[in-house]
Design brief:
The protein is mostly helical and 334 residues long. 70% of the residues lie in helices and 1% in strands. InterPro entries: ARM-like, ARM-type_fold, DNA-bd_dom_put_sf, MerR-type_HTH_dom, MerR_fam, PBS_lyase_HEAT.
């Protein structure tokens, strides 16, 4: 079969077939009387083998080795091709992500594009100072996609940079809440904490609703940050979690302050005081928790708390009794 016929049947151009010939990959078995290349059925089968191997990403040199080296074993080469393909996919995915984020920033011109590219680069810089400057810029005039801010805040380890990123994210509204909600389910405890702390700084009803849902999160640290934020927002649903924090000694001082803030109305004060008294009952909690609960009760106004403190001033636990008596003295002096 002549080269033109082979090209039509195989889909490989005549120019490429000549290139294969020059490399020694496929040398036509014969020549016509006029000197034209003439391919045998075996030559054509080899051409199809070459094209099959090229479709896997092999170079022509690797194809020649695979076909002609009797000692060639494909496993090592295939493993290398898998590695190269993964690296290429990762690079292309990274490029696609950057392009999507630039598009989401809705640049008005190339100057905006360049600013966004520089900011995205700096958010991933090794230097904490560069990342912080980028975070502050993101809170200013340079538009940054919320997705990029969420990714940065969930991965940031430097506390100063993290604070700047949370501020920038809060200024962008509640668009990042869905992504932060995904962060709450991360297997990494530090990511879950960063997510809830970011949600806590976002104002508005949607963030409050998400924080309410977070009160059922299995991570006590996450529940605690949600409860503290809800306490600042005046949400009574946080009370049971705040009392748990006092019992467990997890940010107990902040939790007690939040309980005091929530006890601003008489009905709320009596309800919170009653819940604290229930937990103070002997055997309900570890003895070490009772002084903390007594101290938390001290900051709750109203008659229910005062009566409970009067009873606790005679408690058999000396620390509890002294704490209650001291607090009663202060309350009476007011």
């Amino acid at each position: 079969m002549l080269i033109g016929d082979v090209a039509r049947r195989s889909g490989v151009s005549a120019r490429m077939l000549r290139h294969y010939d020059s490399l020694g990959l496929v040398r036509p078995t014969g020549r016509t009387g006029a000197g034209y290349r003439e391919y045998s059925d075996e030559d054509i089968r080899r051409i199809f083998h070459i094209e099959s191997l090229r479709s896997l990403g092999l170079s022509l040199r690797e194809v020649g080795r695979a076909l002609d080296d009797p000692g060639f074993t494909p496993s090592e080469l295939v493993d290398d091709l898998i590695r190269q393909t993964r690296e290429r996919i990762a690079a292309e995915t990274d490029l696609l992500t950057r392009l999507r984020r630039i598009g989401a920033a809705e640049p008005a011109g190339w100057e905006d594009v360049l600013q966004t590219v520089a900011l995205l680069r700096d958010l991933g810089a090794k230097s904490a100072g560069e990342r912080q400057r980028a975070a502050l810029s993101a809170a200013g005039e340079v538009p940054v996609p919320v997705e990029a801010l969420v990714e940065a805040v969930l991965s940031e380890t430097d506390p100063n940079v993290a604070g700047a990123l949370r501020w920038a994210l809060a200024r962008s509204g509640d668009d990042g809440l869905a992504l932060l909600a995904e962060g709450l389910g991360s297997p990494a405890a530090e990511v879950r904490e960063r997510a809830v702390r970011s949600i806590a700084e976002i104002p508005g009803g949607k963030a409050t609703a998400l924080l309410r849902k977070t009160l059922t999160n299995p991570d006590i640290v996450v529940r605690g940050y949600a409860a503290l934020a809800l306490g600042e927002r005046g949400v009574a649903d946080a009370v049971p979690t705040l009392i748990d924090m006092v019992v467990e000694g997890t940010n107990d001082a902040d939790a007690a302050d939040a309980l005091s803030a929530l006890a601003g109305r008489p009905a709320s004060a009596d309800r919170i005081a009653a819940m604290l008294v229930d937990r103070l009952a002997h055997g309900a909690v570890e003895p070490s928790a009772r002084p903390r609960l007594t101290q938390a009760l001290a900051d709750i106004p109203g008659a229910t708390a005062s009566r409970a403190l009067a009873d606790l001033s005679h408690d058999e636990d000396r620390v509890v009794a002294l704490t209650a008596a001291y607090v009663l003295g202060i309350r009476d002096a007011r």
